[in-house]
Amino acid sequence: MVSWIGYDSPGWTGAVSGGHADDGKDDLQDFQAGLRTTHRGAPSNNTLIGHSYGSTVVGAAARNDSGAYADNLVLVGSPGVGSELTDLKFDGGMKDIHVVMSENDWVRDSESYQTHYFDKQEDPRATHVQTDPETEHDGYFNDSETPEMEHIGKVVAGTRRD
């Protein structure tokens, strides 16, 4: 697992625009391409997880030129990816896009943050992950015993079976 934080995170007012996501998309795409290029042995299962505005950066990278060089995309507490999910380019298919959004996530109900094609994430062909309804926006990764963490773990490990 690698935690990539190679973009400047926007402040509250900057989060409603896609400027920071566009600024970081090339670096994320290059990083992902480097993982593919340098990997040896059996094919790897590369999963790109973006939380909150990080999912908007993932979306920008996946719309960029040749895509995101990942087998799975996991969008957690996402305000949107900047386009319809069908516009994302990566090495998987629609079922390999996992949308994680709790009923208790403030992003779901915040009009000011639903500016990055948030409603386009409702595509029924994507995998919509069951969550603990009590999970809050900043709590997705706090408890390994939630349905969303079990699902994400299986995606990352390559053991998810539908």
TrEMBL record:
Keyword Ligase: no
A GO molecular function held by the record: hydrolase activity
UniProt domain DUF1023: residue ranges: 2-110
Region of interest (Disordered), residue spans: 121-145
UniProt xrefs under InterPro entries: AB_hydrolase_fold, DUF1023
Keywords from the named record: Hydrolase
Keyword Hydrolase: yes
Chain coiled-coil ranges: none
Stated name of the protein: Alpha/beta hydrolase family protein
Native organism: Murinocardiopsis flavida
